[in-house]
Amino acid sequence: MTRQHIVFLTGAGISAESGLSTFRGKDGLWTKEEFQYFASADCLYYEPEKCLDFYNMRRKKLSEVEPNVAHRLIAELEKEHEMTVITQNVDDLHERAGSTKVIHLHGEMTKVCSSNNRYDPKYIREYPLTTPIKVGDDAGDGSQLRPFIVMFGEYVFGMEVAEEIVKYADIFVVVGTSLMVYPANNLILHAHKEVPKFVIDPGEMPKCDALGYTHFKTTATEGMKQLLEAFKEL
Ligand code: OAD
């Protein structure tokens, strides 16, 4: 296969084999109803300790896990192809595996920002995963320091750029996302009709099937190996 622009859209399923929970599976994070509240802008405002504790728990967990073979195989494709990874994940496992062009639609757990203006670059900075963010910590502008994460009730920035990137992909691959969450789930509609499109997920993927995606119905690590075999036929 000659050099291509390959675009991946990834979700929680790609990090499952690293030991991070998905959201909607049997043991998914959102099966605990209070967690959905803790991950909301309302909770951050009215009961910040609960919200920050929830993210401190997830930040600490992230410090204890490693990228898996799926993250690494995606990163390796950069040797031969132009690659963009668009992820809904807030972990940094794609970057740790070596991917250099990663777009985080839902934010990044390794960073903090201001509660007054999430996207003010002056206050977005790296913050150690093992240092808890506490109520009263100053973001730098007098507001509460908070994780640089999109919470329920908050706007997702960057969708237009992501849509353009998907639109001009030579190959588009979806890995480990239930495609239940708007607006990221609509990205699958933007890939060109004629380009090869793949989805790797052990679950049913009716939306992708309807759009003619080749479905590797298996885990991310196994599915990535099958994908690389399929690339040899292109
Ligand atoms: P979900 O939990 O909704 O979906 C996870 C997907 O991963 C499902 O389709 C599973 O079948 C699949 N899966 C499970 N194990 C897998 C494995 N080993 N290999 C590959 N796939 C596997 O997670 P997302 O679709 O990522 O947003 O959720 C999207 C957003 O919903 C998240 O970014 C989060 C959440 O609310 C925010 O917090 C803003």
Can you give me a brief rundown of this structure?
This protein has 234 residues and is of the alpha/beta class. The chain has helices spanning 13-16, 33-38, 41-46, 48-63, 69-76, 93-97, 159-167, 206-210, 220-232, and strands at 5-10, 82-87, 102-104, 107-114, 125-126, 145-149, 171-175, 197-200, 214-216.
Task: Please give a structural write-up.
It contains 9 helices and 9 strands. With 234 residues, it is α/β, with parallel strands linked by helices. The protein has 2 domains: 1-19 and 67-106 and 155-234, 3-Layer(aba) Sandwich (Rossmann fold); 21-64 and 110-149, SIR2/SIRT2 'Small Domain' (2-Layer Sandwich). Helix 5 runs parallel beside helix 9. It is globular, with a radius of gyration of 18 Å. The protein starts with a strand and ends with a helix. The mean pLDDT is 97. The structure holds 2'-O-acetyl adenosine-5-diphosphoribose (OAD). 2'-O-acetyl adenosine-5-diphosphoribose binds next to helix 1.
Number of strands: 9
Q: Please identify which CATH superfamily of the largest domain we are dealing with.
A: TPP-binding domain
Task: Report Rg.
Answer: 18 Å
What ligand molecules are bound, each kind once? Answer: 2'-O-acetyl adenosine-5-diphosphoribose
Q: How many H/I helices? A: 9
Mean pLDDT across the residues is 97
**Assembly state here?**
single chain
Q: Major sheet, described briefly?
A: 6 strands, parallel
As laid out across the biggest beta sheet, the strand order is 3-2-1-7-8-9
Number of structurally distinct domains: 2
Low-confidence stretches: none
Class of secondary structure makeup = alpha/beta
